[in-house]
Protein: Riboflavin synthase
Amino acid sequence: MRKYGVVDTTFSRVNMGDIAERTIKKEDNDCEIKRYTVPGIKDLPVAAKKLIDWGSDGVITLGWVGRTQLDKYSYLSTSIGLIMVQILTSKHVIDVTVHEDEAEHPDDLVRIAEDRATKHAINLVRLVRDGESSLRGYAGKGLRQGYRNAGELS
Ligand code: RDL
Ligand code: RDL
Ligand code: RDL
Structure:
């Protein structure tokens, strides 16, 4: 049985943790999921690390970045932290981030969050369950999360 970690925040304005949990359960019926909710994005790296220490084969984090320059700096440090966790543990930590300035209208932000969380949860299951070659068939296809696919150029 595979173990997945789901880390989300109370800062987020969409419950992306629920979306990720639902999607993982649907995609992989032989799995256990541990959920960890933290206040904000800078708390994600240690929570991801703790879920890996607990035995997660892979983790998905779901963060929401505010509109200010300060928020963007917070995300940069978060991203470096999440990459460090991956390098230190040799486990995937799939980083779902919605930047509040990606859209003006709340409905569009919800749509981006739902699409990105769902598609990346599927990516996590594929990487964890099916390994290095799981995305090989999609290489160079211009896939996007949160938007329609950009598509391949050649
Ligand atoms: O450890 C407590 C907080 O420092 C931590 O939760 C931060 O991630 C909170 N936070 C900021 O301090 C900030 O300036 C967040 C953001 N911006 C942000 O854009 N998104 C967050 N948290 O989830
Ligand atoms: O862990 C899942 C994603 O966070 C990760 O695959 C990112 O590299 C995806 N990504 C972005 O989030 C982004 O803002 C990418 C780009 N920009 C980019 O320009 N090129 C990418 N990925 O390959
Ligand atoms: O081409 C439009 C978008 O793909 C581009 O603006 C990306 O940078 C948007 N984006 C993020 O900002 C992000 O934090 C993406 C991701 N994460 C992601 O995981 N996958 C994306 N875009 O396709």
Q: What stands out?
A: Helices lie at 16-27, 44-54, 69-89, 106-130. The beta strands are 2-9, 31-38, 58-65, 92-99. The first helix runs from residue 16 to 27.
